[in-house]
Amino acid sequence: MTIRNAKVEDARKIAELHIEGWRRAYDGIFPEDVLKELDVTDWTTWWSDMLQQSQVITKIVVSEYGTIVGVVSGGPLRDSFISGYDGELYAIYLAPEVQGTGLGRKLFLSMAGQLQEYGFTSMIVWLAVKNETRYFYEKYGPVEVKRVINQYGVEDAAYGYTLQNLTDIERT
Prior knowledge:
- The protein has 172 residues and is an alpha+beta fold.
- Helix content is 35%, strand content 28%.
- The protein has helices spanning 11-25, 32-36, 40-51, 103-117, 134-138, 163-171; strands at residues 2-5, 57-62, 68-76, 87-94, 122-128, 143-149, 155-162.
- α4 links the parallel β4 and β5.
- The two termini are 22 Å apart.
- Keywords: Ribonucleoprotein, Ribosomal protein.
- InterPro entries: Acyl_CoA_acyltransferase, GNAT_dom.
């Protein structure tokens, strides 16, 4: 497997992986119609826009067969109502066949390192409180910064991290 910078031409495959990840992660959490109506064209446009922003870091994992099996993206904090944090992990999604291999940890910690290289000192990760992936993020010692009800009626939590702590973990 190869990890490389994502390009605009990767947007559709990233969108497909992102939608697949949402449908798996949020099944039984988000309203069923929301998950059914996720549109790859809309998400491709969103990813194309993200990939053209200079402060957004996006890496993909490409399998030996040329398939995108992972994506991680981060950059400046997008929510002005959270203070004390400057960076954000926007997305991390893995295809089912690479989950549980340590790739998620590698992408999470490497994104923390990249954000730190770009001058950020901290990061926020948003997640649905009922999503079991929160246990993955809780292993790295976050502070719960805020809880909100999102536009779908689902409770989300913002977990905050100090990037130095995460990059220290990455080195061990």
